[in-house]
Every structure is written in C-alpha cells, then in structure tokens.
Amino acid sequence: MIEAVLLVSRQGKTRLAKWYLNASLKEKTRMIRDITTLVLSRPHKQCNFIEFKEKKIIYK
C-alpha cells in the first residue's frame, strides 16, 4: 500500500508531499527529514530501494 508520495530536491527541500495515511504533522515532518537524509546520503551507484522502519522507500 502506498502511504506517501514525496518529491524532494537534491538540496533537501520538499517540493511535494502527498500523504495517504493519518499521521500527525510532527510524525510526517520527522519521516520526511529521516527519509531525505537517508536518500541524499547514499551514493548514486547504489540500488534505488531502501528498507526503512518496515517500509520500502523507492526513489529516483
């Protein structure tokens, strides 16, 4: 099930955040920050799939 669609620039600025689950603003902000940090710190040659807190993150 898709829980969110996030578009984040390479500078870490959130361009679009569409959520398909009920969560508080604090939880959403924390998730965006954690996912952005994780994705931007990975080398470009690595796989585009990440396991994160029992969720799959797929990025490009």
UniProtKB/TrEMBL annotation:
It is found in: Endomembrane system. Residues 1-60 form the AP complex mu/sigma subunit domain. One of its GO terms (cellular component) is endomembrane system. Its main location: membrane. The keyword Protein transport applies. GO terms for biological process: protein transport. Pfam families: Clat_adaptor_s. The keyword Protein transport applies. Keywords: Membrane, Protein transport, Transport. It comes from the Eukaryota. PANTHER family: ADAPTOR COMPLEXES SMALL SUBUNIT FAMILY. Belongs to the adaptor complexes small subunit family. This is AP complex mu/sigma subunit domain-containing protein.
